[in-house]
Design a protein that fits this description.
This is Quinonprotein. GO terms for molecular function: dihydrolipoyllysine-residue acetyltransferase activity. It is an enzyme of class 2 (transferase). The strands form 7 sheets. Strands 1, 2, 3, 4 and 5 form a 5-stranded antiparallel β-sheet that branches. This protein has a 4-stranded antiparallel β-sheet with strand order 6-7-8-9, with no helix packed on it. It contains 1 helix and 26 strands. It is mainly beta. The longest helix has 4 residues. It has 2 domains: 138 residues, YVTN repeat-like/Quinoprotein amine dehydrogenase (Methylamine Dehydrogenase, Chain H), CATH 2.130.10; 147 residues, Methylamine Dehydrogenase, Chain H (7 Propeller), CATH 2.130.10. A hairpin with a 7-residue loop joins strand 14 and strand 15.
């Protein structure tokens, strides 16, 4: 009788996970408005920009990581967004066409309170525990930051100092302190808006020079952008020949010498804001039709450090409990 050998094969099946969907790419942040302020929105002791996302008819207030440009939080949508201010380190104030003022938590973007106003807010200026709100009809009111009740706010700037279309960038001259020197940027009252910079210490003029740049125009009037950052006075203007291509010029405060002059066509044909906070110069610029972007500019080189991306949308509000 023949012997038959039987072999046993043992098979091992490895678990294979299905391929994961790639993480969605963050969408570049777009804004139609020029409002820009700063809070510490993520607790890293660095200034984080706060601005409107979208903003033509509806928009959200968003906070962006000042180190990376990634969105941190977004508020619920607000109709006809307009006024925006970082009133204190923990409070962002935002107003829109519904004649209401919202106090948003600087760490989360959630509304703490909503106050009804006598008109549509146009400008907001923070004071010590309060804020002044200027309406589009020119009237003004004071608001407590704790609770939103009406109150006088003598520590906030006077309404006359913060009124007028694009009042911040229409100031002529613009003045900053850099390296112990007062740097002044001006354009002539008439004719081509060629930029001139001057360094002063007290009543003494240290230097004065005409720059290879013009002030961009909006509403038929020049916009002046001057900030102090990285030990330099940084000017954002446009080229002299056509008056359309943006230029970034960093001036040594003591001598007026140009540390660099950089063409910056990537900023687009519309400059709306330039502010300095922490290590960067933050510029809102872009196209009039498609919206503007927020970029962080390294003041030492004039190069872009990052372009802001949108934060995730907030969760929908919880339904009101049934009576």
């Amino acid at each position: 009788m023949a012997a038959v050998g039987i072999g046993f094969a043992v098979m091992f099946f490895a678990r294979v996970d299905p391929p994961q969907e790639p993480a969605p790419r963050a969408r570049p942040l777009s804004t139609q408005l020029d409002a820009l302020c700063f809070v510490d929105a993520n607790g890293d002791d660095a200034p984080d920009p706060v601005l409107w996302q979208d903003g033509k008819t509806r928009g959200r207030v968003v906070a962006v990581d000042g180190r990376s440009g990634q969105g941190i939080w977004a508020s619920l949508e607000i109709e006809e967004p307009d006024a925006l201010a970082c009133a204190d380190p923990s409070t962002v104030l935002a107003g829109g066409g519904d004649a209401a003022l919202r106090a948003l938590d600087a760490r989360t973007g959630k509304a703490r309170w909503v106050a009804n106003l006598p008109g549509v807010p146009d400008e907001i200026a923070g004071g010590d525990g309060c804020a002044t709100v200027v309406m589009k009809d020119g009237t003004a009111t004071g608001i407590k930051l704790e609770g939103g009740g009406a109150a006088d706010c003598p520590t906030a700037p006077q309404p006359s100092a913060i009124t007028g279309n694009f009042w911040e960038r229409k100031k002529n001259p613009q003045v900053v302190q850099a390296g112990g020197v007062e740097v002044v940027l001006t354009v002539p009252a008439g004719g081509p808006p060629r930029l001139t910079a001057e360094g002063r210490r007290g009543s003494e003029s240290l230097w004065k020079k005409e720059l290879a740049a013009r002030a961009p125009l909006s509403g038929g009037r020049p916009d002046l952008f001057l900030v102090a950052s990285g030990g330099a006075a940084v000017v954002v203007g446009v080229d002299v020949v056509n008056g359309t291509e943006p230029r970034i010029i960093a001036l040594d405060p003591a001598s007026g010498a140009a540390r660099y002059e950089r063409a910056a066509a990537y900023l687009g044909d519309r400059l709306t804001a330039a502010k300095a906070s922490g290590p960067y110069v933050y510029v809102i610029s872009g196209a009039a039709v498609s919206g503007a972007a927020l970029r962080a500019i390294d003041p030492a080189t004039g190069e872009t450090a990052w372009r802001a991306t949108t934060p995730p949308p907030p969760p929908p509000p919880s339904p009101s409990p049934s009576p």
